[in-house]
Design brief:
- The chain is α/β, with parallel strands linked by helices and 477 residues long.
- It folds into three domains: 3-97 and 275-378, no CATH class; 116-270, no CATH class; 412-476, Arc Repressor Mutant, subunit A, CATH 1.10.10.
- It is built from 20 helices and nine strands.
- The chain has a five-stranded mixed beta sheet with strand order 4-6-5-8-9. It has a two-stranded antiparallel ribbon with strand order 1-7.
- Strand 8 (393-395) and strand 9 (401-403) form a beta hairpin.
- The radius of gyration is 27 Å and the shape is flat.
- The protein binds a DNA duplex (14 and 14 nucleotides) through residues 370-372, 382-383, 385-386, 408, 410-411, 430-432, 445-449, 451-452, 455, 461-463.
Length: 477
DNA sequence: CTATGGCACGGATT
DNA sequence: AATCCGTGCCATAG
């Protein structure tokens, strides 16, 4: 036996801490981030190879393995969802040896998926000094999911160690990009920015600016009478301004579908987000098992390049060591990637199973579900679930795009119940009365909590609802 | 006086 | 260990 053969045992690895650490990291990444990581790894590790994808011969879908679960599904119980991996097909540049045959299927896949940050960056890049790029990147990274920038320019400047002026300059660009209103500190400022952009298009309202800028809190309380008095106009005019604001502006400029779907259809914004998983109903059988697609940037399988594996035996003593390191890293990466996919699939299978009602129905059908319970069910550590759930979104059959964490929202169904109680109330109910109503439906929550839910749903307090009602009555007579 | 929102505390969850 | 959430208490507005 030559001493070299000892090195061919590539399978058994000391996969311990490094393995765990990398898997953990990968699990925490969203599909988009994972794609970047994969591209970086492919670019920097010559031993890692992406072999061509497998497609289903019948439907042309990209598959992780045969058989295609859509076309010939093994019969399964109705309550068990079908889970499979699906490549999102946008693997960046490096490896794309396949022909162009897949192009017409491309249309079926999510269109022009682009992260909001990239979208903005592309717009402002021309006007941006090269030195200011890091500032822009930083600011965009700090935007919260609503599109707001919670910190002040001064804070950013201090963190970045650049002058306040430069930050403000870049921020100004961001705030005037599309969609308008991004990068504001709060809703009020955002609305003003949106108003500005509307005015540039020639659409404006005489009172809107004053209402938002100076009488915002009164407007929130629907205290139109007082605003009208201060501005010296009629209540109708103020109400008209409010309508204009509601119709043309959005409180959360980055909001796609989530939230509660109430309000803006904003179909355009949906393109800014790419879900990490897609849950769909089988085409013909509404009661059949759900389909769950977990997106992967891999269109095929990752493996160690066999050419390199073979060459390993022949290369020089000195070089061999570094090649071995590459190979080892490649094996590790592929394994971690596989592990991630496996975990994601099993997680989504469990979620789709548990929350089947919610997926078919609405918010009120959400079952209480904790990450811990799923962790024991899947036999993984609870932090794994936390990571897997974080920063990811799912597209539901009805088009809703929701963060995965929504499946674990303890209070969603109660909040939904509050909504429907208020919607059906004969007269404005106080929080106490709503609490009593809820108790009758089996939800036992404190009055204070009702107030919080109500506020979270954007429902005004009873007194304000009363005023609203009397106002519209007054209009009628 | 009543309804509500702010603050803060403790327990659960991550 | 850090964070989130429900809740109680208290101040305040109407």
């Amino acid at each position: 036996m030559s001493p070299l053969s000892a090195h061919t045992g590539l399978r058994q690895r000391p996969l311990t801490t490094a393995h765990l650490a990398q898997t953990m990291t990968l699990i925490g990444l969203s599909a988009v981030e994972l794609e970047e990581t994969l591209a970086a790894e492919l670019a920097s590790n010559p031993a890692l190879e992406l072999v061509s994808e497998i497609r289903c011969p019948t439907c042309g879908r990209r598959l992780k393995r045969m058989p295609c679960p859509v076309c010939h599904v093994a019969p399964r119980a109705n309550d068990g969802p079908i889970v499979y991996l699906s490549a999102c097909g946008t693997t960046t540049g490096t490896m794309r040896g396949e022909g162009t045959d897949g192009e017409e299927r491309e249309a079926v896949e999510p269109r022009a998926p682009e992260k909001l940050a990239e979208h903005i960056l592309r717009q402002i890049a021309p006007a941006l000094d090269v030195d200011d790029r890091p500032i822009a990147a930083y600011l965009l990274a700090r935007l919260d999911e609503r599109g707001f920038l919670p910190e002040s320019p001064a804070e950013s400047a201090q963190f970045l160690r650049v002058t306040l002026q430069r930050v403000q300059c870049v921020l100004n660009l961001v705030q005037h990009a599309e969609p308008p209103g991004l990068g504001a500190r709060d809703t009020r400022q955002s609305l003003l920015l949106q108003l500005e952009s509307l005015e540039e298009e020639g659409k404006s309202h005489p009172l809107a600016r004053a209402c938002i800028a100076n009488h915002w809190d009164m407007l929130c309380r629907h205290d139109f009478g007082r605003v009208a008095r201060i501005l010296g106009v009629s209540r109708e005019e103020v109400k008209d301004a409010r309508d204009f604001i509601q119709r043309n502006l959005t409180p959360y400029p980055a909001q796609a579908f989530w939230g509660d779907g109430r309000g803006q259809p904003c179909a355009d914004n949906s393109a800014y987000f790419r879900p990490d998983v897609i849950i769909s109903r089988p085409p013909h059988d509404a009661n059949g098992p759900l389909h769950v697609e977990v997106f992967t940037p891999i269109a095929g399988t990752l493996r160690v390049d066999p050419a390199i594996k073979n060459a390993l035996a022949e290369c020089e003593e000195g070089e061999r060591e570094s090649w071995e390191r590459y190979v080892e890293r490649a094996v590790l990466f592929a394994k971690c990637m596989q592990q991630r996919n496996n975990t994601m699939c099993r997680l989504l299978e469990a979620i789709a199973c548990e929350q089947r009602q919610f997926i078919h129905g609405g918010d009120r059908d959400l079952k209480p579900l904790t990450r811990v319970s799923l962790a024991v069910r899947l036999g993984v550590h609870e932090s794994t679930i936390s990571r897997a759930v974080a920063n990811k979104t799912a597209a539901l059959p009805d088009g809703r795009i929701v963060p995965l964490s929504k499946f674990f929202d303890r209070s969603l169904s109660v909040r939904d119940a509050v909504k429907s109680i208020v919607a059906a109330e004969p007269r404005p109910l106080t929080d106490d009365e709503i609490a009593a109503c809820l108790a009758r439906q089996g939800y036992h929550v404190a009055r204070r909590t009702v107030a919080k839910y109500r506020a979270a749903e954007g429902i005004l307090p009873a007194a304000a609802r009363r005023r609203q009602a009397s106002y519209s009555n007054g209009q009628r007579r």
